[in-house]
Design a protein that fits this description.
heterodimer; A: alpha/beta; Rossmann fold; 2 domains; six-stranded mixed sheet; six-stranded antiparallel sheet; B: alpha+beta; four-stranded antiparallel sheet; 3 helices; 4 strands
């Protein structure tokens, strides 16, 4: 698909790194001068802007955390003046105090630019009608997609969330070609449409979904694409980054992170040590052109893998893989980081067991033990003990190769595992450390 | 004649912990289904309860509705003489014809069948 900004999107990696360094240097200098908070943090680390002499020197800079935004509620981190600010957004604060982010005119610019590039890479542009079914308002999803779509020349249908039947009518009447929403909402829409006698595949012009704001899987993508007859692209962004958002390109092989807007690192969630490309770890982001407040080495808390290999689309910007979990969910078993989402993905590939599971971690003597409890699927249940033992062995092998640590498997009766999402019941940690 | 030997056995997946057999048996009692015979095959942590009942279809439905994992297996019921050599006769016939016995269990019914 054609590039929105060919010069930048196809820039040779070496040049891109040079541009990143120039931007990073300017950012650190600006922030050190204007941000009391980050200057203080740099001083504690004994580092000055002069110490940043290469892109790798960024690793010397202190991290920022969500807690920093909370501690400085509402706008203690802002260094842009009130007349420079053009927008606030506020996170819901479901897991603590709400966080407030702010935007200067340029911050809105780079945000729109990031999504214009992203949408173009999904084949959207003039003539497309993008139905934005992300929430409008304090949440960043709706307005972000809105500005990006207008920038790329598409016609925006700002339906926001809710009133699904009306959304489906409008989708038909105004010939929506693309929709931006959560994957679960799109599935819900498909079901409501069927009840209304409308097939999204046959009775609408929908051909693209820009889906995100919640974890989803490759299996879910396949289901959405096959059922609704569309291409479904993963979008990534969080409100705290307060600006650029990113999507997959037409190759659907990872999310391009625009390097002139965001500098990404993958670190070990425990030690903060930067990991080489290809290793799984916590995403750390520096928003290079941010003006309202510092977003420097921000620990997003999302787990992913960085892919710096060339993409078939021709864009030179590196990609991150689908988000594989949250740092908060991480377990350390015999020194290996384990995420419940890895177990979930492994189980989805084994038809003999259901998708529900429970992880029980314990300690026998000095050794951690991990047990994964799964339900035998109806189709696979056999009268023969040997068949059931074989299923257990299959799951054990798959888990070992996915997790790099051995786990016992217990087959349990259907319905006996917790159905609801959330770490609290999916993981039972009996270790008393 | 041959058909009469084939019986529909129900097999129920069960965790290996107290009360599971009672739950299964209780459900069948409530549905007024009679159990002729049963056995428990055990593996580490789980087991399979196999049972011969008077109304296999109803038993299957009842237990499935309650959330149990249930399957049908066709087994052969053979009447055996209750005297020395009874088992030997039958096992020899099957062995000589190359038929393997995966599992077997015996019960003594009203008619002295096994």
């Amino acid at each position: 698909m054609g590039c929105w900004n060919p010069k930048v999107e196809g820039m040779p990696p070496e040049e891109l790194r040079k541009a990143q360094y120039t931007l990073a240097k300017a950012l650190i200098t600006r922030v050190y001068e204007r941000s009391e908070f980050y200057r203080q943090r740099m001083k504690e680390q004994g580092i000055r802007p002069d110490d940043i002499r290469s892109l790798d020197d960024i690793q010397k800079l202190p991290f920022m955390y969500k807690q920093d935004l909370r501690d400085n509620y509402p706008d203690g981190l802002f260094y842009a003046s009130k007349d420079e600010l053009v927008r606030y957004h506020v996170s819901s604060g479901t897991t603590g105090k709400p966080t407030v982010v702010g935007y200067t005119r340029n911050d809105i610019e780079t945000w729109s630019e990031s999504l214009a590039r992203a949408f173009a890479s999904c084949g959207l542009g003039r003539g497309d009608v993008l139905q934005v079914s992300y929430g409008y308002g304090l949440f960043t999803g709706g307005l972000g997609a809105h500005y990006g779509a207008e920038r790329v020349g598409a016609t925006v249908l700002p339906t926001s969330v809710g009133n699904t039947e009306r959304q489906i009518e409008l989708m038909q009447d105004l010939h929506t070609t693309a929709i931006a929403c959560t994957p679960s909402y799109l599935l819900h829409m498909g079901e409501v449409a069927e009840r209304m006698g409308v097939s999204i595949r046959d009775d609408t012009d929908l051909r693209v979904g820009i889906l995100g704001a919640e974890p989803w899987s490759e299996q879910m993508r396949n289901r959405i694409e096959n059922w609704l007859g569309i291409r479904a692209y993963d979008i990534y962004g969080t409100s705290e980054l307060s600006g650029p958002m990113f999507t997959e390109c037409s190759e659907q092989q990872g999310i391009h992170i625009w390097s002139d807007l965001a500098l990404t690192e993958i670190v070990d969630p425990e030690t903060g040590e930067v990991l080489p490309p290809g290793e799984r770890g916590e995403l750390v982001v520096t928003i290079l052109q941010k003006e309202a407040f510092p977003v420097i080495r921000y620990r997003v808390g999302d787990i992913t893998v960085m892919d710096e290999s060339p993409c078939a689309c021709g864009r030179t910007h590196p990609r991150i893989r689908r988000i594989q979990g949250r740092v908060d969910d991480m377990l350390i078993v015999r020194g290996i980081n384990v995420f419940p989402s890895q177990v979930e993905h492994a189980l989805l590939e084994i038809p003999e067991v259901g998708r529900h599971f429970q992880i029980v971690v314990d300690r026998k003597g000095a050794l951690d033990t991990m047990l994964v409890r799964v339900e035998v699927s109806e189709e696979a249940f056999s009268d023969k003990i040997t068949d059931l033992m074989m299923i257990r062995k299959t799951v054990e092998h798959r888990l070992r190769s996915t997790l790099n640590v051995g786990a016992g498997v217990e087959l349990v009766e259907p319905g006996s595992l917790p159905r609801f999402e959330g770490k609290s019941k999916k993981v039972v940690d009996r270790r008393s450390l | 004649m041959e058909k009469s030997y084939i019986i529909k056995q129900i097999s129920i997946f069960s965790e290996n912990r107290p009360g599971r057999l009672a739950a299964i048996a209780g459900a069948l009692r409530d549905a007024k289904i009679n159990i002729f015979a049963f056995s428990i095959a055990e593996a580490n942590g789980f087991g399979v309860v196999r049972a011969l009942v008077d109304r296999p279809e109803d038993a299957h439905r009842t237990l499935t509705d309650l959330g149990f994992r249930v399957s049908f297996t066709e087994v052969i019921g053979i009447k055996m003489r209750d005297e020395p050599g009874g088992l030997s006769d039958i096992a020899s016939i099957l062995g000589d014809t190359g038929i393997n016995i995966e599992y077997a269990y015996a019960y003594s019914g009203k008619g002295g069948r096994s």
